Amino acid sequence: MIKGHQINYQSQKISILKDVDIQVGYGEFLAIVGPNGAGKSSLLNVLANEIKTDKKQNIQFKDKILTDWDFGDLSKHKAKFSQHNAQDIPLLVKDVVMMGRYPYFSSQPHSDDFRSAEKAMAETDVIHFQNREYNSLSGGEKQRVHLSRVLAQLDNDVVHRLLFLDEPLNNLDIKHQYRTLELIKNFTQNDNTAIVVLHDLNLAARFADKILLMEKGQVLAHGSPEEVFTQETISKAYNFPCTICKHPVNDDTMILFG
Amino acid sequence: MKSKSLTFYAIIGIIILILMMVLSLNIGVYDFGKSNSYEVFWKFVTGDSTLSLSEKYIIWEVRTSRIIMTVLIGSMLAVSGTTLQGMFKNPLATGESIGLTSGATLLAAIAIVLGHTFESYLPEIVRNSLVGVSAFVGALLSMIIVYRISTSNGKTNVVMMLLSGVAITSIGFSITGFLIYISKDEQLRDLTFWNLGSLAAATWTKNIILSVVLLLSYLIILPKGKALNAMMLGEKDAEHLGINVETLKKQIVVITALMVGTCVAFSGTIGFVGLIVPYILRLLFRSDYHFILPLSAICGSILLLIADTLSRTIVAPSELPIGILTSLIGGPVFIAILIKFKNTLR
Q1: Positions in chain B whose pLDDT score sits under 70
Q2: How many domains does chain A have?
Q3: Tens of pLDDT along A122-177?
Q4: Which residues pair with A9 in a beta bridge?
Q5: Phi-psi category of residue B273: left, alpha or beta, with phi > 0 → left and psi -120 to 50 → alpha
Q6: Taking chain B, what is the end-to-end CA distance rounded to the nearest angstrom?
Q7: Cα Rg, chain A, nearest whole Å
Q8: What is the model's pLDDT at position A53?
């Protein structure tokens, strides 16, 4: 799906990413985890073509160099949910979600655009306040509106779509955290790919197919949750003692800190 | 208020505009005697030979051409304001508040003074176009300076935006003041006209140039409503929606400078149209640029036509400079926006 080789990125002379190699396959749910300042968001931004460095990054999306893609085409193949969403948008919730359909219509939305937007709003549980002012919502609600917008954007017939999410669970309550991860999991079931920055290791272990553990701009471990989440690796990466055990009910890997 | 389609509101707006144009045709100082203005206009259109030369001149060269110019300039000023607000993501951005108008006025003033100095060498058409081109360059330069100062990494600092506008305006003011101080009588009249703004100097040649600029600009700018909406998400998220933000911003910078520059060159400083019109439209349609961008093209014309008709009736037979009227409405609107955004403007 997407391949990056020897990704380097510096900001104000501080090296943020050092020689990162990454390869994500079709239908994969990859969780990027790591302590603060490890370069998780930066890696996601580079992969999503947000950061424009002087040096051309060697990133291939569907076997074509990322920067060679046409803007319009790319928006139907991939979408990104950003960590910092705009706080001031003087529009109704449904108008913000409809922005996700902008790549598909030129002036007036078609009936399938309304259908996609409505489906996405139902999935993210925002449909009951679709007629409210976006600016009147709480942080978590705004978060779900943007999630809904991103899902609406990728509601199309393209095979192998790619979804980037940067800490999508911020500000969400438990129910919506699980609901969001289940949505992402469903999305990847049809050979689509999701690359998600997560902080909660237990949720990552439960939902993700692969884990990429980062520390100080480098990849510390990459593999299945069982391979990456070992007591030794995690304690080293987070510089904090931990214990690995099995979830008493569903047998998933569980990490207990302290 | 948004359940109906854009076409519906556009048609209503155009009907109101046409009614206003018809009404203002009949308002003016000249008395056509027994027949009213519409009969005279009809006689002119059908080529009736009983029409006297002065009546012909008044109805066609004075009233009709002035109404058309008002419609064209009002429309462009409002659209330039709305577009700038979309790019700077702030309802306070207009040609006046960020110094575009005074940049254009400054270079136009220089062109007038220089034009008079080299009068004997330059034909009139060159001198006229020189003023227009200078105004465009002035607006473009101010725009680039303000954008460079106030925006970094795609985020605009509102305070910086307004303050750099203040700085450019004060530079423009002092140099224009100096030019007025050193200029001779005829230049002085032209320069004063600039500072107050007036639509009295309308001609059909100017209207043709204005129409060409308007068509060219609107072909590029009016379909950008969706793109300006997406800009509210932030520039990076707009790019993820397939919008080429860099190209969009370059287009906006050049087109708004072109529109503001041309308007300043032909009618002087008519302030705050680009602030008042989007403010009113936002009250009805929120910030949905898909609606407010095309509608501001129509409402700008309506507003300026009302203001111009007022300016030539309230102190008849004399005429109030229209810039005074628009600023009189614009000032309080500016304050109203400031109060409304008090908490977010940090």
Answers
A1: 1-4, 119, 124, 343-346
A2: 1
A3: 999 999 999 999 999 999 999 999 999 999 999 999 889 999 999 999 889 999 99
A4: A17
A5: alpha
A6: 31
A7: 19
A8: 63
| One-character DSSP codes across B128-153 | HHHHHHHHHHHHHHHHHHHHHHHEET
Task: Name the residue facing B287 among A76, A91, A103 (closest C-beta).
Answer: A91
From B256's Cα to the closest Cα of chain A, the distance in A is 22
* B-chain residue closest to A79, CA distance: B240
ipTM: 0.90
Task: Tell which CATH classification among 3.40.930.10, 1.10.3470.10, 1.10.10.10, 2.60.40.1910 matches the domain B6-340.
Answer: 1.10.3470.10
Least Cα separation, residue B160 to chain A (angstroms): 19
In tens, the pLDDT along A167-223 reads 999 889 999 999 999 999 999 998 999 999 999 999 999 999 999 999 998 999 999
Question: Tens digit of pLDDT for each residue in B153-184?
Answer: 777 787 888 899 999 999 988 998 888 888 87
**Which domain, by its residues, includes A210?**
2-257
Q: Which of B6, B231, B235, B237 best probes binding to A when mutated, by most A CB atoms within 10 angstroms? A: B237
Contact list in B for residue A156 (CB cut-off 8 A) is none
Q: What would the two tokens of residue B301 be? A: 């014309």
Q: What is the DSSP letter of B63?
A: I
Burial of B1 (0-12, 13-18, 19+ CB in 10 A): exposed
Given an 8 Å threshold on Cβ–Cβ distance, is A71 in contact with B226?
Answer: no
What letter does residue A92 receive in the DSSP assignment?
B
The answer for residues whose C-beta is within 8 angstroms of residue A99's C-beta and 6 or more apart is A149, B226, B229, B230, B233, B241
